[in-house]
């Protein structure tokens, strides 16, 4: 592994939600953080909170040319030790109202971008002595959910990518794992509660309670809890874990 004084993590979708929590958690643990997101303004706010360890790069991960350019910038500063593929989008609609363009957009962010980042950055990890790739999936990585066919397909595909690369890089000292959250306190969750409220006539608080009741604990996961799992998978304690899918969902998938 890279030395403790030069460890670096790359986080996509870093400006809010899970990505923000992951970026700040790794910065607190002494990592230099490459924080990637579309909004330069939001990234600047993250940098102010996280301090000098946060290095920002505004990029739309669905733009292949821009993402490849971002990888070159990252590698010019040295090989990262950890890659957290967190950026993700969803489309909530019945199958017959999900367009091919919707599917392509979701797949570009949720699958193609992680594929490109892995392809471009993992060889540098190997050359530097090893590393960790952590893909942020979902409970829908391993099960279905109605009205989310494009999203479910993308998260299943991301888990397949995780397992394939885990085998391919198993003897190269790079581990590849999935973290599969349930409902987390993010903008995506806020959008879901608003959609449920609009569709059912419930208040947003009632919608929130209905979604929380889907798991055994009856609560929504905090972004910081997902970040803690990522820190574990990046640690030496997790050096023998690869190809795994860690559910953090309050018991929903169980």
In the sheet with the most strands, the strands line up as 3-2-1-4-5-6-7
CATH topology of the largest domain: Rossmann fold
What is the CATH homologous superfamily assignment of the largest domain? NAD(P)-binding Rossmann-like Domain
Distance between the termini: 34 Å
Secondary structure: number of strands: 7
Weakly predicted, low-confidence segments: none
Q: Please give the CATH class of the largest domain.
A: Alpha Beta
Element order: H for helix, E for strand: EHEHEHEHEHEHHHE
CATH architecture label name of the largest domain: 3-Layer(aba) Sandwich
Helicity level? 40-55%
What structural class do you assign from the helix and strand content? alpha/beta
Spatial extent as radius of gyration: 18 Å
Largest sheet: 7 strands, parallel
Strand content: 5-15%
Q: What would the principal axes of the Cα set say about the shape?
A: globular
Mean pLDDT: 93
Indicate how many domains the architecture comprises. Answer: 2
Number of helices: 8
Protein name: SDR family oxidoreductase
Family: Belongs to the short-chain dehydrogenases/reductases (SDR) family.
């Amino acid at each position: 592994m890279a030395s403790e004084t030069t460890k670096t993590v790359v986080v996509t979708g870093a400006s809010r939600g899970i990505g923000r929590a992951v970026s700040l958690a790794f910065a607190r643990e002494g990592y230099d953080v490459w924080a990637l997101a579309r909004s330069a303004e939001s990234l600047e706010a993250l940098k102010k909170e996280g301090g000098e360890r946060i290095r920002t790069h505004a990029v739309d991960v669905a733009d292949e040319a821009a993402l490849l350019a971002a990888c070159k910038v990252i590698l010019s500063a040295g090989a990262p030790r950890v890659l957290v593929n967190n950026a993700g989008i969803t489309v909530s609609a019945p199958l017959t109202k999900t367009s091919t363009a919707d599917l392509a957009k979701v797949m570009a962010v949720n699958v193609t971008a992680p594929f490109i980042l892995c392809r471009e950055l993992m060889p540098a990890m190997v050359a530097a002595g090893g590393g960790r790739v952590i893909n942020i999936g979902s409970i829908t990585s391993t099960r279905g959910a109605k009205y989310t066919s494009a999203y479910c397909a993308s998260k299943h595909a991301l888990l397949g990518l995780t397992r394939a690369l885990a085998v391919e890089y198993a003897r190269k000292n790079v581990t590849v794992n999935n973290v599969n959250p349930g409902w987390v306190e993010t903008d995506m969750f806020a959008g879901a509660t608003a959609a449920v409220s609009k569709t059912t006539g419930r208040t947003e608080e009632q919608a929130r309670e209905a979604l929380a009741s889907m798991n055994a604990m009856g609560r929504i996961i905090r972004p910081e809890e997902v970040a803690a799992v990522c820190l574990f998978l990046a640690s030496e304690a997790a050096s023998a874990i690869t190809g795994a899918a860690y559910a953090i969902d309050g018991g929903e998938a169980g």
